[in-house]
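Predict structure. Chain length: 237.
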Amino acid sequence: MSLQGKVVLITGATSPIGRQLVDAFASAGARLALCVRRVQDVDPLERSLLSREISYLAIPCDLRYEEDVVRMIHRIVRRFGRIDVVVNTASICGPKLPIVNYPVDPWRNILATNLTGSYLVSREVLPWMDRQGSGSIIHVTSSLTESSRPEWGAYYVSNHAVEGLTRLLATEHRNSGVRVNCVDMGAPKPDGPAPTDPEWTQAFLWLAGDESANISGQRINLAGFKVPASGASSVTN
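Prediction complete.
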């Protein structure tokens, strides 16, 4: 699947999921803007890309802070002139505790990273996409939202909220050429290994490409996902 020349912003680019998506989008010919939280992560990421003939920009950015996100988006637009795709993979899990025992600091940190980060990136990117008349925003969720799961705390709540944000943005930007979707990665492993089946990245590439231009406000389940043929959709809400 070719994404030749498209500018793709990937947050959480050094996470297990992010690293595989960086490789997949690079192989598809995209120009990459790669967001990492810590400055010290920039050099190792850049070294891993030196042998690839791709155009990229690695940016340290703490998604919890508005000024960091605003600065990052401006840097990307100055470098590439546009942003075609955003993949929000930055996510943290936090402690597994009942709500009555849940400490407030991890709660705030998880919601700020998983939810507020996705909101801020989307808010800053959407005006550029609206001007372009095209764009794709892809959020990440998990199978936790399919049923009530005790002791997942802020991570559980943030997953539901990200899915709500996805539907809200899709509704607000209907008929604009911009679509917003989320991908269910299955059992939550935001700090652990990404799925081992290499085919899972195809869902992200498809959502980023023009083939999915009529898909918005959807929750894509990776379980059994196949790239739809002839514009048909193999998606679930």
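Summary: The CA atoms of residues 108 and 190 lie 17 Å apart.
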